[in-house]
Amino acid sequence: MSPAHPETWPVLVAKDTLEPQLYRDFKDLAAAAEESDGNPPLSEQTLLTLRPGALPSGGPGYAGSGDIAGHSVLALALYAVDDDSRPSSAQDLAGLAVVIEEGDGSGVLEVAVHPSYRNQGVADRLIRTLESERGFTGLTAWSHGNHEAAAALAVRYGYRPVRELWKMRLTTATAELPEAPMPDRVALRAFVPGQDEGAWLAANRAAFSHHHEQGNLTRADLEARMAEDWFDPAGFLLAEDPTGKLLGFHWTKIHPRSGKHPAMGEVYVVGVTPEAQGMGLGKALTVAGIRYLQEKGLHAVMLYTDADNLPAVSLYRRLGFSRWDVDVMYGPVPPA
Ligand SMILES: CC(C)(COP(=O)(O)OP(=O)(O)OC[C@H]1O[C@@H](n2cnc3c(N)ncnc32)[C@H](O)[C@@H]1OP(=O)(O)O)[C@@H](O)C(=O)NCCC(=O)NCCS
Q1: What is the per-residue pLDDT for 77?
Q2: Is residue 270 located within the same domain as residue 174?
């Protein structure tokens, strides 16, 4: 039976809650899109926010919540059905759209279309449904890897690039890292779960006061990451002064081998509190984390940074990182 047109397919709308089966379908579609495009279509924060059971139960039938970080979520799923409108199966999720809404009415949109359902108007259908469900004003949209189709869609909806997130990469097998000792009287140690959460959240807030997403991470966000399989406190480095005050941190992450992609390290987040910046601590922490990843046998390390974060981009370039890929955030063109 040949499939009907996306215009006739049912759109399932989930608010704040994803059923486990729907979450699995989202993850499968995201994995298929990543395999095909080379970039994950949903950010880590989105997947953590959508995960069923992320919050304590909110009542009977409650399958999880999308507001673990003070956000709420609107998720749309477009299921392909045959001409005779037989019920769709889990394999037939053709496309999805997720809006993480902020309390102030703004929100961030991510859209993904399964590689088998591209070029049929699936994304367009999802966005138009979103318009009628929510209104589209005030949203910005991520294009991970700046896929050509996403750029074309952005133009059609009157959006333009408003932010660039660079993916940078260093081949650690051949990198010549500089000597970068810790500043005087600053000591390095590993994060201790159950003890360091509060101090780390405060230091993260101070270091990233200019960066809304990272600076506003909550304890629930931190704990969601600590509950992930990849979390290893040994690779979460803290730098403190002799009084035990936290001055900076480098949290590393290891992406395990997946299919034909070898394991890779990540500079997951580096931050130095404002009073300790400019004295070599950021460089020392970054180098210490990369050496830790080298010792774990990883041959390459990647990271994400805002393209306009001059101190960070300069630091990473001096260590030998180069630009690898780019995620583009699109936003509405302001009225003339
Ligand atoms: C980026 C950051 C970690 C650097 O830490 P730092 O301790 O201030 O940096 P250092 O003193 O170790 O300087 C290391 C390098 O950074 C670069 N750098 C630091 N501050 C800079 C600035 N204001 N402008 C341009 N380059 C700068 C220089 O290249 C310097 O190299 P050099 O010493 O060989 O000249 C720090 O600015 C920070 O925490 N910023 C806020 C959080 C953040 O944006 N983290 C990165 C997220 S991707």
Answers
A1: 94
A2: yes
CATH of the domain at 229: 3.40.630.30
- How many domains does one find in the chain? 2
44 lies in the same domain as 191: no
Position 227 in a domain: yes
Tally Cβ neighbours within 10 Å of residue 218: 12
Please say whether the beta carbons of 329 and 141 come within 8 A. yes
Mutate to test the pocket of ligand 1, among 315, 318, 323 (most ligand atoms within 8 A of CB): 315
Pocket residues: Cβ below 6 A from ligand 1: 207-208, 270-272, 277-283, 305, 309-312, 314-315, 318
Q: Who contacts 70 (Cβ-Cβ below 8 Å, separation ≥6)? A: 103, 216, 218
Across the 336 residues of the chain, what is the mean pLDDT of every consecutive 10-residue run? 73 85 93 90 89 49 35 87 58 88 80 94 91 73 88 88 95 91 97 98 97 91 95 98 98 91 95 97 98 96 97 97 95 79
Domain membership of residue 207 as a residue range? 168-326
